């Protein structure tokens, strides 16, 4: 079981065209190539509806790692740097939730 979970929610700019959205998806998908990952998931809000659910984001990235050291290496991987540099222009807001297993 992975010991470190990195959850990133993205709110894209409202005026993006389909080409921009596709470029974002391609960019975020490229992160799955980083060798330090244990698991990798990209999704959009599920069609669940309860008062405690926030489905206001556009995309959710969930990465798991065997250790915080693997997570830290992921953060400085050149693929991650390219994603941030090339895709930051597509989002208005990002929220990150990191957790460790208990």
UniProtKB/TrEMBL annotation:
Signal peptide (from-to): none
SMART domains the UniProt entry points to: Dabb
Domain Stress-response A/B barrel: residue ranges: 4-99
Matching SUPFAM superfamilies: Dimeric alpha+beta barrel
Pfam families hit by this protein: Dabb
Superkingdom of this protein's organism: Bacteria
Protein name in UniProt: Dabb family protein
Species for this entry: Arachidicoccus ginsenosidivorans
């Amino acid at each position: 079981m992975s010991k470190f979970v990195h959850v990133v929610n993205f709110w894209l700019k409202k005026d993006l065209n389909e080409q921009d959205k596709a470029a974002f998806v391609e960019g975020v998908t490229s992160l799955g190539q980083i060798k330090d990952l244990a698991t990798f998931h990209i999704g959009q809000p599920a069609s669940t509806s309860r008062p405690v659910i926030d489905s206001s984001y556009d995309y959710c990235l969930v990465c798991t790692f065997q250790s915080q050291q693997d997570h830290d290496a992921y953060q400085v991987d050149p693929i991650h740097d390219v994603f941030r540099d090339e895709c930051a222009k597509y989002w208005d807001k990002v929220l990150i939730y990191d957790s460790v297993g208990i």
